[in-house]
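Dear support,

I submitted the protein below through the web form. The confirmation email said the job was done, but the results page showed an empty box. After a refresh the structure appeared. I'm attaching both so you can tell me whether what I see now is the final result or a partial one.
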Amino acid sequence: MTLIKVENLSKSFGGITAINDLDLSIESGGIVSIIGPNGAGKTTLFNLLTGVYTPTAGHILIEGVDVTGQSSHELAAAGLSRTFQNVQSFMNMSALENVMVGCHLHSNCRFIDALLQLPSIRRTNSESRRIAIELMEYVGLKAYVASQADELPYGALKRLEVARALATRPRILLLDEPAAGLNPSETQDIDELIQNIASQGITVILVEHDMKLVMGISDRIIVLDHGKWLAEGTAEEIRHNHDVVGAYLGEQGRNR
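What the results page shows now:
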């Protein structure tokens, strides 16, 4: 089933076109990676899919419903969540509170109820705390449940962002450079986490420069070139696509 469909999508910034009349489809389930060099439009595409940017032209459909122009909050409520290339944790909060922020997307509390700390709010907060602890354990952060966010090492902060995104109960999870800045051991942990998430039925869309990780876990790979679709296929097909190898992967990518 087609989960996401992009039709004639374009995004320009002044005289620069970052996404240029792009068409693509992403099926439900598994791990889809979007690759290309700096300037290919990968993060711009993520920002369009998640409502950070509004398209200059074209349409975005999720399960056949046109969501073009919807806000990030509306898209998150519809089941689409993301992480960012640069860590976006709330450093003045605890690690657990960072994850609880994601849980509150599905809470029904009103401002006056929260102000008065009514029993319903206490129950909601208790449930959010329980879920947040489970998610921190799931992503391998059990040791940091009682820590402040600014006490976590960089690799743990990357996983904390994944936990917060999962707290929104996504059907679609977009991960923007989840392995950026990680050492080999941390990259292996992220590799395994992404595969575990996909095994739960969540569709994972990945932007990542680590070609070893991409080739190892992707069910499908989409290649962008200056905001346009260049190629699509399995890791094996992309590895042997001469245009892709020449432009993006080089001979090292062919031999991995």
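Response: this is the final, complete result; the empty box was a page-load delay. The domain at 2-255 is CATH 3.40.50.300 (Rossmann fold).
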